[in-house]
């Protein structure tokens, strides 16, 4: 597509001309499909449209078949974003813009093992983790049609937690015939990043609205604007020019920045106040009252919004009440603790300009489209778990960059609040915005574990040599040159995966090697000689290929297990082949053994490894889960397990399962444990035979598991907030994570079962089925926060736990009961709608209202078997 056609497409969405940075990328050749780009321009300068220009060039072609003159080309584009909320925002925006051209817009931000059909979409929005999970699957052939990938906020490559995954994804992409477009904030080493991706670097400082930067001195009630332009200025700190603006005093306030806020609002502006923590954001919002600066219409809209926000949850929490009161005054706070609907209502109110000020954490600056007149940096330091440290310059500039609304503001202001005169120098450094460099985080152990197992599972990598070759192409190798240190880390993680049963490997010996005659260590090939008595391999012959798990030699060098004369003809003997670790159960000392790095050694994932990779969880988490499941079996055997419907300690088993889920790395950080509750939690762990209380992190994980246990016992969000101090937004996030790991737990259980891990417990009748059922039910219970008796009713989507409980208490206990007692259901939970009762494929019998006594005699008293597979919505009944 040439520039003329591109501009024609853009014009259909009202874009008649391009901004300077957008023109620059055209000049530099962004329409050349084999040319990668890193675009580094300020916030609000049009980065997203540059990404759109790139994917338009790939996914559309001119044709008279569409009245607009364009049709889908058959190629696909991926738009990678760092946040799910941002993905939803882009999805709505792109769908509105490009559906008219026949393009189908998709979004994929759900479960990592979901089987969603993305092949039907032309433009797909997702996170880097989602793309990583898709790239390891074998049924995603549609990825071959992807010809361009746009990575928004590519500088997050330097993020300590998530940057490693993005680097892995980019390393894979740069090996493919795909155009890569990276949209970046200003970073100190953007040229290094561009060189790694073989990309053209485009840097521009143009902004659509002038941005003034200054320091606010609360004690003097003035702003010093620092500028290089020719204003009437005085000499400032460090010899820089500054323009001084005294502020009026608008009356007494508990907030030291109240004058700064009111000054902006009185001049038809809006403010974002960036605070270091959720607590500070709430505190600052409560200190400010803008009611007397609001019109009657604005006050009326705010009262309505306040009421809506108050009643988002089943019962309003303290946070709901605080936010509702702030909203009445034209102020809001915004942080991860708010429920998703509350966050959206606050954002929408700010965009409509009825909310004048949002006090928020810096995460709000990470891509969400919420520009303002004045961006105020209240805090430049935050607590990092050990002490207070400076917020990175890049983050400060992201916050400041929100200032200046095109078409609404004549200018934007980014202002840092000076807390101490001694900090003016540091504040000025931040104000100048000299960006930090970003560094590779691929050496993060968790990232490496997930990557190695996933790559072996998918078949992308099958040997140590291929792992090393992959690392040569990473940003890490570019930055550090010598990547031998990371090779050591890779070796350690391969060892971890082998020792814990996630991978196994094969070694092809020479045809001349005849193992039938090998009884002593010295009989083996040179590659295995002189490695000490700790070598443990299990040679299971299959033609001339040998599966290696464990061989052991005694102190005299005699072969103890594996292929010796005593057991070579008994390959199917479980006792001979099971856990072959030798007489003393020694583990393989890998530091003394280099076979895993041999060129002829190949890796393969086990059933446990397959399940772990498919669920996209950390193998360390899978280890905790696997170990936890086995410990429950052992505990029940030792307690002489007897299965019946009223097993007394079923709650204890649930608690142990939830605990092992909450130990997973995906659930970190866990809830913090205070001194006053420490001893009680340890005693509870001991009573449950969880002997892992010496590690503080495990106690925190146990406390988190108690919160989740309360949730599935139908505690309300308000009750959990009051008991654990966890707000709705954080609770919902934890629930989503726990639900994901609960699903993974089910798959890991199946993998262990198929691997024969539970065969020794078969003698205990019903034990395996009992534990399996608890695990299978947990995922649904965690999703809805419900007790086990509601499992079948919750198979009806959108019913929810509150309605399900009302029905169950009225003796509507099964899906069939809903179908046969429509009028009674309506009477019990209210009118839902009358659409699709006939679509339910069960007899619906007498539709007259049935009284409760009659219902008691006809309804099931207990649910047997698994939840029904009928996943109907409420509309399917009414």
UniProtKB/TrEMBL annotation:
- Where are the stretches annotated Disordered? 557-585
Report keywords, A-Z: ATP-binding, DNA damage, DNA repair, DNA-binding, Helicase, Hydrolase, Isomerase, Nucleotide-binding
Q: Which GO terms describe its molecular function?
A: 3'-5' DNA helicase activity; ATP binding; ATP hydrolysis activity; DNA binding
SMART domains for the chain: DEXDc, HELICc
**A single Pfam family, by name?**
Helicase_dom4_arc
Keyword Nucleotide-binding recorded: yes
GO annotations under biological process? DNA repair
Q: Which residues form the Helicase C-terminal domain?
A: 256-446
Task: Give the signal peptide as a residue range, or say none if absent.
Answer: none
Give the matching CDD domains. SF2_C_Ski2
Catalysed reaction equations from the record: Couples ATP hydrolysis with the unwinding of duplex DNA by translocating in the 3'-5' direction; ATP + H2O = ADP + phosphate + H(+)
- Chain segments annotated as coiled-coil in the UniProt record: none
Which residues belong to any copy of the Helicase ATP-binding domain?
Answer: 28-205
Question: Which residues make up the binding site for ATP?
Answer: 22
Assigned EC number: 5.6.2.4
Q: Where is the composition biased (Low complexity)?
A: 557-569
PROSITE patterns registered for this protein in UniProt = HELICASE_ATP_BIND_1, HELICASE_CTER
The role this protein plays is: DNA-dependent ATPase and 3'-5' DNA helicase that may be involved in repair of stalled replication forks.
Protein family membership: Belongs to the helicase family. Hel308 subfamily.
Q: How does it assemble?
A: Monomer.
Q: What is this protein called?
A: ATP-dependent DNA helicase Hel308
- Origin organism is Methanococcus voltae (strain ATCC BAA-1334 / A3)
């Amino acid at each position: 597509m040439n520039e003329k056609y591109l501009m024609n497409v853009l014009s259909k969405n009202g874009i008649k001309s391009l901004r300077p940075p957008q023109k620059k990328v055209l000049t530099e050749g962004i329409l050349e499909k084999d040319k990668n780009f890193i675009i580094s321009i300020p916030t609000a300068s049009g980065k997203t449209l540059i990404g759109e220009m790139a994917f338009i060039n790939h996914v559309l072609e001119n044709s008279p078949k569409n009245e607009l003159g364009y049709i889908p080309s058959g190629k696909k584009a991926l738009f990678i974003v760092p946040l799910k909320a941002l993905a939803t925002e882009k999805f709505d925006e792109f769908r509105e813009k490009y559906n008219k051209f026949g393009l189908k817009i998709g979004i994929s931000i759900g479960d990592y093992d979901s089987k969603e059909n993305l092949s039907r979409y032309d433009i797909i929005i997702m996170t880097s983790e989602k793309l990583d999970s898709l790239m390891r699957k074998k049924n995603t052939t549609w990825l071959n049609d992807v010809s361009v990938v746009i990575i928004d906020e590519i500088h997050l490559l330097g993020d300590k937690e998530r940057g490693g995954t993005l680097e892995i994804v980019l390393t894979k992409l740069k090996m493919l015939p795909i155009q890569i477009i990276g949209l970046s904030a200003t970073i100190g080493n953007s040229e290094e990043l561009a060189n790694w991706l073989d990309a053209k670097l485009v840097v521009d400082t143009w902004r659509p609205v002038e941005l003034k930067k200054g320091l606010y001195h609360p004690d003097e009630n003035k702003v010093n604007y620092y500028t290089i332009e020719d204003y009437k200025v005085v000499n400032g700190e460090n010899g820089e020019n500054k323009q001084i603006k005294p502020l009026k005093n608008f009356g007494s306030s508990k907030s030291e920045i109240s004058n700064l806020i009111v000054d902006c609002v009185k001049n038809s502006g809006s403010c974002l106040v960036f605070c270091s923590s959720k607590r500070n954001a709430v505190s600052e919002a409560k200190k400010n009252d803008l009611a007397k600066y609001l019109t009657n219409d604005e006050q009326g809209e705010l009262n309505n919004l306040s009421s809506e926000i108050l009643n988002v949850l089943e019962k309003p929490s303290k946070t709901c009440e605080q936010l509702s009161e702030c909203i009445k005054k034209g102020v809001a706070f915004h942080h991860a603790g708010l429920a998703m609907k509350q966050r959206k209502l606050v954002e929408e109110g700010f965009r409509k300009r009825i909310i004048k000020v949002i006090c928020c954490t810096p995460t709000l600056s990470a891509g969400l489209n919420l520009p303002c007149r004045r961006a105020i940096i209240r805090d430049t330091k935050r607590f990092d778990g050990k002490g207070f440290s400076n917020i990175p310059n890049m983050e400060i500039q992201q916050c400041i960059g929100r200032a200046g609304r095109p078409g609404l503001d004549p200018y934007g202001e980014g202002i840092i609040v000076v807390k101490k005169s001694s900090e003016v120098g540091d504040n000025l450094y931040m104000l100048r915005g000299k960006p930090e460099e970003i560094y590779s985080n691929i050496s993060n152990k968790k990232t490496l574990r997930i990557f190695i197992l996933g790559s072996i599972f998918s078949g992308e990598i099958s040997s140590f040599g291929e792992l090393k070759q992959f690392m040569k192409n990473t940003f890490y190798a570019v930055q550090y040159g010598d990547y031998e240190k990371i090779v050591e880390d890779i070796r350690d993680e391969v060892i971890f995966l082998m020792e814990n049963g996630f991978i196994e490997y094969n070694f092809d010996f020479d045809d001349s090697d005849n193992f039938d005659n090998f009884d002593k260590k010295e009989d083996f090939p040179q590659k295995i000689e002189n490695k000490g008595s700790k070598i443990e391999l299990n040679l299971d012959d299959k033609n001339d290929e040998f599966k290696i798990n464990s061989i052991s030699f005694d102190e005299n060098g005699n072969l103890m297990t594996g292929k010796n004369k005593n057991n070579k003809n008994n390959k199917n003997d479980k006792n001979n082949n099971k856990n072959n670790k030798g007489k003393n159960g020694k583990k393989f000392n890998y530091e003394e053994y280099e076979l895993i790095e041999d060129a002829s050694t190949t890796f393969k994932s086990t059933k446990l490894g397959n399940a772990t990779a498919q669920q996209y969880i950390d193998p360390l988490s899978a280890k905790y889960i696997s170990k936890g499941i086995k410990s429950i079996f052992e505990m029940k055997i030792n307690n002489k397990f007897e299965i019946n419907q009223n097993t007394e300690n079923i709650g204890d088993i649930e608690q142990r399962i939830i605990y092992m889920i909450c130990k997973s790395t995906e659930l970190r950080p866990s809830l913090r444990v205070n001194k006053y509750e420490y001893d009680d939690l340890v005693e509870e762990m001991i009573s449950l035979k969880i002997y892992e209380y010496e590690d503080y992190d495990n106690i925190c994980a146990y406390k988190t598991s108690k919160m989740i246990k309360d949730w599935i016992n139908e505690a309300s969000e308000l009750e959990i907030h009051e008991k654990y101090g966890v707000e709705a937004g954080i609770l919902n996030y934890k629930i989503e994570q726990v639900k994901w790991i609960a699903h993974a737990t089910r798959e890991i259980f199946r993998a262990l079962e198929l691997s024969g891990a539970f065969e020794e417990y078969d003698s205990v009748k019903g034990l395996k089925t009992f534990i399996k059922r608890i695990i299978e039910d947990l995922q649904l219970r965690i999703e809805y926060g419900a007790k086990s008796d509601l499992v079948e009713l919750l198979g009806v989507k959108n019913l929810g736990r509150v309605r399900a409980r009302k029905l169950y208490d009225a003796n509507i206990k099964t899906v069939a009961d809903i179908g046969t007692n429509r009028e009674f259901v309506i009477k019990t939970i209210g009118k839902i709608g009358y659409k699709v009762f006939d679509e339910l494929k069960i007899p619906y019998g007498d539709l007259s209202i049935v009284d409760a006594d009659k219902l008691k005699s006809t309804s099931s008293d207990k649910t047997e078997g698994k939840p029904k597979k009928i996943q109907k919505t409420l509309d399917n009944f009414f």
